[in-house]
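Entry:
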Amino acid sequence: MDRISSIKSLGKEDQWDIVIIGGGASGLGAVVDAAKRGYKTLLLEKNDFAKGTSSRSTKLVHGGVRYLQNGDISLVIEALKERGIMKRNAPQLVKDMSFVIPFYDWWNSPFYGLGLKVYDMMAGKMGLGPSTLLTKDETIELINNVKKDGLKGGVIYHDGQFDDSRMAITLALTATNLGATLINYSEVTGLLKENYLISGLEVLDRESGEKFTVKTKVVINATGVFSDKIVKLDQPGARPIIRPSQGVHLVLERVFLDGPHAIMIPHTSDGRVLFAVPWHDHVVVGTTDTPIDRADEEPKALEEEIAFILSNASQYMTKKPKREDVKSVFAGLRPLAAQQGDSTQTKEVSRHHKVNVSTSGLISVLGGKWTTYRKMGEDTINTASLVAGLKEQKCKTKKLLLHGYDENTDINDPLHVYGADRQKIISMGKPRDNDSLSDKFYISKNLILWSVENEMAIHIEDVLARRVRCLFLDAKETLRIASEVAEIMATALQKDDEWITKELRDFKTITQNYIL
């Protein structure tokens, strides 16, 4: 991906078939689908790819055991199918993760035993492994630091795990390979209309300040929790279509989950499930579900959310995590589709996605989750092609192998998420350029240069939060190495000391949100 040449294309193209606003899961799923069908497609992202919700998930590719409990069978079936497709098309990014649910009440056993067998059956040939009831001793053997007092037994089941922002960058690279144009830090400031129908957009390059007018046959609003802002550009008096909900996660050292399996806590104090999941040699614990009135680009974890996670996690772990054990805390906002008569309990709002079309032709894709990103893209482009009057083309993404596809990847290799690009990264520069700048996580000079030269990273945060996941693993350690990263980036981007000073100041401000 080359941002400079992509920006130049804005002034060259007479008219795009499709312009997509938003570089998160839904927008990236749509741009890959559109490009694969052969449509001339442009994606514009106000910040960086996956800057918002799409880099702040629980890192799971799952059908949704909780949705099964709530009776949302159609969503579970769709998600399980998409889980299998996602793993098949990007095995370097999606792996099997086994989950253990400990039982402390005998009545839990029949529900989860039978319910998870149904879960397995729904997955069919796409299943990752059979669920199995466990005795008390077997449960302890699998998670030897689980709380043993009152433990009756458990069940083990299988779902998927992935690296969310790395999946986002992989989709961006896939779309680029297919001929699409993608640009980060490009803000849509207005919509153009002819005869009351949308015909184009006004775009601001946030890096240079340059403004562009872009003509297109159809516009897709895939901005997640910020969808209402684009809708109001189209119809200033429109009612809100998004109901944001905040989810917070805490990251701990691996010792708090002594074993290869994740834990699913089925009943917390607010009725949600809680996960403790191994991820990049750390443990991600979450999440919360807090209704939010306003969507911020940098959401902050509330004290009550942090206390909720620590309290509930402590009940299931022999080694009880405390505030000082938290290496990073991150908050994400779920773009739930608003419904009439919604209660304040956002955990009851359906995770099904919706595709809306306004009277002026603006298409908005709402709701959904990472696991169903591909199906969201398919449904969105089906609608867009009709609205734009494009030549009918069937969806071709079900068996589309994503950029870097590598079915023989070693998940223990810190470079496994790069798949087939791994050897290219290692071969850059001198051998010592592959040495890690930290002993807390893996980040090398080569990884930084690869992010800048091939993945459109232009700010320190782009590299340390999303191209490499340092900020999400250990915020204080990330801040410690930021200066060295800035020096490497400045040389590659031909920036001066003033740029380094500003970047470090901005990054330090952002990092405070990740430190307790």
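DSSP finds 16 helices and 19 strands in the chain.
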